[in-house]
């Protein structure tokens, strides 16, 4: 029996205990069969289910990682931490790189283009007890690529190799992984050469966001590229792109053979997606998404975590974007967005929550709604003459100085 609900369907599965709420794309996707998938192996780490929270600037701080971890198991990675800012002790950078004793395994994504800085940073993180280091070679932000960082680095395989080598040599037994995009644009694809570099330099795995830097977050992710990378390397490949529902993760893993999936924008305002992912990989139908009353409880919990971590002023300022994401698709959410400028304490949050109906079911259209980033594309900005010698392994200029570092971190923080 199938009941159509807009662009989604509620299906009655005779093998489940309830009704499946899923998009039409996923209404017939079977849950994982016994032993169909194994744990994700990253060095000594064994991650089950094979699911990774994508590093996202202004998003995957300790409070949000905590929410996701409480919902379901997986590997939950910090937002991108800049090596130079970390090494000079930039206050916000150190806070974002920090953790609490309840977080294990602890995973930090690092960013830098100077092998010396990267090596020093990785050694410090290992000394702090970090269990996993990820490296950002996929950031498409103009401020990053115009200095030769992020998605620009894999254009020069020898430079990429130097940076990865520095991290691996400094990490001891702690596994290092890298995350890349397909390339700069369709005329300059780099993901296969990046996979070879990662494998040769001792990285434990490689994650691929199956879009180019010029695509940003537009269009559909190219899952075929993930499968191509799986065939080209022997280290685990993690697939990233268009995981909006738990069923998408199963479809990606089956279609590409990837060892694990990376979940990004699909979990914004939906940390319970990790509970759904745990269920389907365990062979169970997930519980239906929460009605607004339960969503409101998560919002309260999230706000409390943000205030505890960032302080009352910055914590509630951070919460404003999250309210937009949590309420997206619920009746009256447009009026809620108009109130967010005054969201500065828990009483203001309660006033926002009170405008919506706690009994309203989760909006079906919200399953695949884009809660951040637009559909625009870009022309990727690279340093002048950057493509003249692709064998050049000279590190590009890094951001230095307190003022410059502060502006850089603020631009990348997203909130």
Strand count, sense and barrel status of the largest sheet are: 8 strands, parallel, barrel
Roughly what percent helix? 25-40%
Radius of gyration over C-alpha positions, nearest whole angstrom: 21 Å
Helix and strand composition category: alpha/beta
Structure write-up:
There is one protein chain. By secondary structure, this protein is α/β, with parallel strands linked by helices. Helices cover 37% and strands 16% of the residues. It has helices at residues 62-71, 83-87, 91-97, 115-127, 142-145, 157-170, 191-200, 223-232, 246-256, 273-281, 292-310, 312-327, 333-338, 346-354, 402-413; strands at 2-5, 8-12, 19-23, 40-42, 45-47, 51-53, 75-82, 107-111, 132-137, 176-181, 183-185, 188-189, 205-209, 237-240, 260-263. The chain has an eight-stranded parallel beta barrel with strand order 6-7-8-9-10-13-14-15, surrounded by eight helices. Helix 4 links the parallel strand 8 and strand 9 (132-137). It is globular.
Quick rundown:
With 415 residues, the protein is an alpha/beta fold. Helices cover 37% and strands 16% of the residues.
Which key phrases capture this entry?
3-stranded antiparallel beta sheet, alpha/beta, 15 strands, globular, 415 residues, disordered N terminus, 8-stranded parallel beta barrel, single chain
């Amino acid at each position: 029996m199938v009941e159509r609900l807009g662009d989604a369907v509620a299906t009655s599965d005779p093998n489940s205990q309830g009704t499946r709420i899923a998009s039409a794309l996923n209404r017939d996707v079977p849950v994982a069969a016994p032993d169909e998938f194994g744990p994700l192996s990253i060095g000594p780490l064994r991650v089950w289910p094979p699911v990774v929270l994508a590093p996202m600037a202004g998003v995957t701080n300790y409070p949000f990682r905590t929410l996701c971890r409480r919902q379901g198991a997986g590997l939950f990675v910090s937002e991108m931490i800049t090596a130079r800012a970390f090494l000079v002790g930039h206050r916000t950078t150190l806070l974002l790189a920090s953790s609490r004793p309840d977080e294990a395994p602890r995973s930090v994504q690092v960013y830098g283009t100077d092998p010396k800085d990267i090596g020093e940073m990785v050694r410090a993180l290992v000394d702090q007890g970090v269990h996993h280091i990820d490296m950002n070679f996929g950031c498409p932000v103009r401020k990053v690529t115009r200095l030769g960082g992020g998605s620009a680095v894999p254009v020069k395989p020898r430079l990429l190799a130097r940076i990865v080598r520095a991290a691996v040599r400094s990490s001891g037994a702690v596994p290092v992984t890298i995350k890349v995009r397909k390339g700069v644009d369709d005329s300059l694809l780099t993901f296969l050469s990046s996979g070879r570099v990662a494998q040769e330099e001792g990285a434990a795995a490689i994650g691929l966001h199956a879009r180019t830097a010029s695509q940003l977050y537009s269009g559909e992710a190219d899952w075929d590229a993930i499968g191509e990378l799986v065939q080209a390397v022997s280290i685990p490949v993690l697939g990233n792109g268009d995981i909006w529902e738990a069923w998408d993760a199963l479809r990606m893993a089956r279609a590409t053979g990837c060892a694990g999936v990376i979940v990004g924008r699909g979990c914004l305002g939906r940390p319970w997606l990790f509970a759904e992912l745990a269920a389907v990989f365990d062979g169970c139908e997930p519980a239906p998404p929460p009605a607004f009353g339960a969503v409101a409880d998560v919002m309260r919990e999230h706000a409390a975590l943000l205030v505890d971590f960032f302080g009352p002023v910055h914590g509630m300022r951070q919460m404003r974007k999250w309210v937009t994401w949590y309420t997206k698709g619920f009746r009256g959410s447009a009026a809620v967005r108009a109130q967010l400028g005054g969201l500065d304490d828990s009483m203001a949050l309660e006033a926002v929550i009170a405008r919506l109906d706690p009994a309203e079911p989760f909006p079906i259209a919200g399953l695949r709604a884009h809660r951040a980033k637009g559909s625009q594309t870009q022309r990727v900005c690279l340093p002048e003459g950057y493509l003249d010698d692709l064998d050049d392994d000279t590190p590009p200029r890094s951001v230095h100085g307190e003022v410059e570092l502060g502006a850089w971190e603020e631009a990348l923080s997203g909130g």
